[in-house]
Amino acid sequence: MDSLMHRIDGEGVIKVADFGLTEDMYCTNYFRRRKSETGHEEKVPVRWMAPESIEDSVYTQATDVWSYGVTMWEIFTCGRVPYAGIHAMGLLKQLKRGERLEKPDNKACHDDIYDVMFSCWKLEAGGRPKFSDLVVTVNDLLERDAGYLELSRFPTLTVATTTPPPPSPADHPLAELAVSEPDMDNDLRV
């Protein structure tokens, strides 16, 4: 799956790219064009953005948490397009009505993991977890459950036939998502 390879390096480390660098990889339906405060037209990745970012160009730790939840969802769906059935121009309306990404159909994405994702998508920014809370929660999940994504459910992916070593927390699908708390005390408004 070429769409997945640009996000994972040769050692399986997930890379989150600058959307400006991925223009050729995504169709225009992923983006919405809008004028920046400087009057220049810009593309914004609405499928990963919090409602307040789409509507008011507000970027805070809480909006980054929203995007983190979408990125987790992408990982557990092996690269599916977020909100695939919704046109980018109508996404804000759907989000305000309560539409959210469905739980990935993968045994590795148990309810506790989906609850973490879902908590990132609260409409009110103040209701979303802080990254420091996500670090604790994700690390607890890694220690409790060192499962694997069931790649055999995705026929376009090649799955190794050798028996892997016993799982450890570092091998858990969320291991690459375990982040240290960023220094984001100052909110940005673009």
From TrEMBL:
<dbReference type="InterPro" id="IPR050122">
    <property type="entry name" value="RTK"/>
</dbReference>
<dbReference type="GO" id="GO:0043235">
    <property type="term" value="C:receptor complex"/>
</dbReference>
<dbReference type="GO" id="GO:0005524">
    <property type="term" value="F:ATP binding"/>
</dbReference>
<dbReference type="GO" id="GO:0005886">
    <property type="term" value="C:plasma membrane"/>
</dbReference>
<protein>
    <submittedName>
        <fullName>Tyrosine-protein kinase transforming protein RYK</fullName>
    </submittedName>
</protein>
<dbReference type="InterPro" id="IPR020635">
    <property type="entry name" value="Tyr_kinase_cat_dom"/>
</dbReference>
<feature type="domain" description="Protein kinase">
    <location>
        <begin position="1"/>
        <end position="142"/>
    </location>
</feature>
<dbReference type="InterPro" id="IPR000719">
    <property type="entry name" value="Prot_kinase_dom"/>
</dbReference>
<dbReference type="InterPro" id="IPR001245">
    <property type="entry name" value="Ser-Thr/Tyr_kinase_cat_dom"/>
</dbReference>
<keyword id="KW-0418">Kinase</keyword>
<dbReference type="GO" id="GO:0004714">
    <property type="term" value="F:transmembrane receptor protein tyrosine kinase activity"/>
</dbReference>
<keyword id="KW-0808">Transferase</keyword>
<feature type="region of interest" description="Disordered">
    <location>
        <begin position="159"/>
        <end position="190"/>
    </location>
</feature>
<dbReference type="GO" id="GO:0007169">
    <property type="term" value="P:cell surface receptor protein tyrosine kinase signaling pathway"/>
</dbReference>
<dbReference type="Pfam" id="PF07714">
    <property type="entry name" value="PK_Tyr_Ser-Thr"/>
</dbReference>
<dbReference type="InterPro" id="IPR011009">
    <property type="entry name" value="Kinase-like_dom_sf"/>
</dbReference>
